[in-house]
Write a structure and sequence with these properties.
This protein is α/β, with parallel strands linked by helices and 259 residues long. The chain contains 8 helices and 14 strands. It has one domain: TIM Barrel, CATH 3.20.20.70. A 6-stranded parallel sheet has the order 3-4-7-8-13-14, covered by helices on one side. The protein has a 4-stranded antiparallel sheet with strand order 1-2-12-9, with no helix packed on it. A two-stranded antiparallel sheet has the order 5-6. α3 runs parallel beside α4, α4 packs parallel to α5 and α5 crosses α6. The structure holds flavin mononucleotide.
């Protein structure tokens, strides 16, 4: 599922996805979603009926918005496996710098989500931090998330990218730039997992980024992850497209991550 905010959010203008060379894709969906309260009413029951293990991803543009997105989840904690905090979004209280590019802000978001879950009765729910590869401070950001009480990390979100439509002489996506996912980013994701696993031994890491086969997932485990997750590749399966013709076997579908 997509990451959820405390409010309904329309996301970015179309087009929101386009293919890139090397079997990747660029997206600028912009975290469109119905808001967490509506999701609990409209989507959660069907997921429960299917016996899904549910990891809900939340996002916000301020610390208060992260808390507001998490609070209702405390009330349905018994139906959930974990909450993932997508800190790859701009902080309107910090000149729109990404939370995930600032260790202190990442820690504050994790703390706010944990406190909000606790106040709703969900104190036992593990909280994962979903981090961005677009920073030279990934290891420090990871440390701040863990210090704030994250039970584990999801590494990584998409890489900042741009596709140009040469015929239209403009960016291919409606929002301009987007996030690169799929096979072209696998090496970046592996390196992120590798570095964080060595800096913070024993951390539960879900490795996402170009995992489209059992072998890709094994590589993630060897880099230091406890799970390999597929986002783009789930989308590819849903649309009948498999990047590079590979079969996506043995891949654990993760989080809000997983489109
Ligand atoms: C269309 C699309 C939508 C995504 N939406 C979210 C999202 O809502 N929240 C999030 O944390 N990550 C989101 N991601 C990022 C993925 O979860 C994942 O971290 C990234 O795509 C790298 O993994 P992959 O190469 O397996 O796709 C999205 C990715 C794609 C392609």
């Amino acid at each position: 599922m997509k990451s959820l905010a405390a409010f309904a959010w329309p996301g970015n203008p179309a087009p929101r996805v386009c293919p890139t060379s090397g079997g990747g894709m660029l997206n600028s969906v912009g975290l469109a979603g119905p808001g967490v309260e509506r999701w609990i009413i409209e989507d959660l029951p069907a997921l429960k009926d299917r016996g899904a293990r549910i990891i809900v991803s939340v996002w916000g543009r301020s610390i208060e918005e992260f808390a507001a997105a998490a609070e209702p989840l405390g009330r349905v904690a018994g139906d959930l496996t974990a909450v993932e905090v997508n800190v790859s979004c701009p902080n309107i209280e910090d000149r729109s710098r990404m939370f995930a590019h600032a260790p202190a802000m990442t820690g504050a978001a994790i703390r706010a989500v944990r406190n909000a879950l606790e106040s709703g009765g969900g104190d036992a729910l593990p909280v994962f931090a979903k981090l961005s590869p677009n920073t030279s401070e990934l290891v420090e950001v990871a440390g701040a998330a863990l210090e704030a009480g994250a039970a584990g990390l999801t590494l990584v979100n998409t890489l900042l990218g741009l596709a140009i439509d040469a015929e239209r002489r403009s960016p291919a996506l409606g929002a301009g730039g987007g996030g690169l996912s799929g096979p072209p980013m696998k090496a970046v994701a592996l390196r992120a997992v590798w570095e964080v696993a060595r800096a913070h031994p024993g951390t539960a890491i879900i490795g996402t980024g170009g995992v489209g086969s059992g072998l890709d997932a094994v590589e993630m485990l060897l880099a230091g992850a406890v799970r390999g997750g597929g986002g783009d590749c789930d989308l590819c399966r849903a649309t009948g497209r498999t990047p590079g013709g590979r079969r996506a076997e043995g891949v654990v579908r993760t989080t809000g991550s997983s489109a």
